[in-house]
Amino acid sequence: MPRINTTVGKNLIGIGDMVSLAWIAEGTRESPDSISFYASGGNLRVLKLLGQDVAEHSDGERSIEVGKAYEQELEEGGLRLRLDYIRELLNLDTPYLRPRVKLAPDDLAWARDIKQQSEADDLVLLFPQTLWESRAWPASYWVDLAWQLKARNAAPLVVLANEDKRFTNTPRFIWGFDINKVAALMSLSALVIGNDSGPAHLSGTIGVTTIVACGPTRGSCVFGHIPEVISLVNDDSPFCAGCHFKAPFRAACDQGCQALFALKPHRVLNRAVSELALYSLRRDRPPAGLTPPA
């Protein structure tokens, strides 16, 4: 049984990486090569939420680092699905399968209470934060989008990992809740909107329609295995959307992606309104990635 070590290495470190790895591991459950993990902190909580076999400490057996797969992805410019690079490194031919999320009753009760405080039925979660400035849709666009959604009778809720003054001038915001509560809130939402970051991976895996503002990254590489994720890119100049950190990516791009600047709020809003109309037709259908209650 290969154990992937998520506690070492410089490349795979975040929530999105853990969710992606869980899609691979889920496909190996019935295989002699079934995958398990070493993890700590937030990575440990995410993998447990996704029902994975995860240990906090090494027991001395050989573990596998998968950072080299990311290096290969960058070298090729993200021409293939990110999971393909990892699976190739692990020498696997098993399928990708959606991991299932089992939500605790207390977390669901908290999420229902948050939703009931909304002024409209269609809860739309906005996740504007990301660790990488080059992947961040501008803060002013997020604030504008939140108010425009409210004007269209949706219930926008900005969800933050930590207090962030840039997003306090929005109709409603919360911050500082653990990943289990956030997952429960996602499961009750009509739509999630985010950057190319961990929350988008999680909400799409849960089965909630998720719009991602993509600049440097290729959505087909990062999210191609999750049918619920819609990657929006700028269709006009600048031409560099989807560079995947290859030329013309340059020093200035580390301070903000001009292709993301060119993806204006009205484009994201229009797609969000369309998806909310579709949601009204399937409102009573549970998300695909939830384990049904016993």
What does this entry look like structurally?
With 294 residues, this protein is of the alpha/beta class. The chain has 11 helices and 9 strands. The strands form 2 sheets. It has a 6-stranded parallel sheet with strand order 6-5-4-7-8-9, sandwiched between helices. β2 (36-38), α2 and β3 (54-55) form a beta-alpha-beta unit. The longest helix has 15 residues, at 265-279. The chain is globular and about 55 Å long. 43% of the residues are buried. The model has no long low-confidence stretch (mean pLDDT 92).
How are the strands ordered across the major sheet?
Answer: 6-5-4-7-8-9
Major sheet details? 6 strands, parallel
Outline type:
globular
Average pLDDT taken over every residue: 92
Low-confidence stretches: none
Rg result: 19 Å
Continuous helix count: 11
Would you count the extended β strands for me? 9
**End-to-end C-alpha gap:** 29 Å
Order of helix and strand elements from N to C terminus: EHEHEHHHEHEEHEHEHEHH
Strand content: 5-15%
Protein structure class: alpha/beta
Percentage of residues assigned to helices: 25-40%
Keywords:
six-stranded parallel β-sheet; 11 helices; three-stranded parallel β-sheet; alpha/beta; 294 residues; 9 strands; single chain
Q: What's the quick description here?
A:
The chain has helices spanning 15-26, 41-49, 67-76, 82-89, 105-116, 139-151, 179-187, 198-206, 219-222, 258-261, 265-279; strands at 3-5, 36-38, 54-55, 123-127, 155-160, 173-175, 191-195, 210-213, 229-232. Helices cover 36% and strands 12% of the residues.
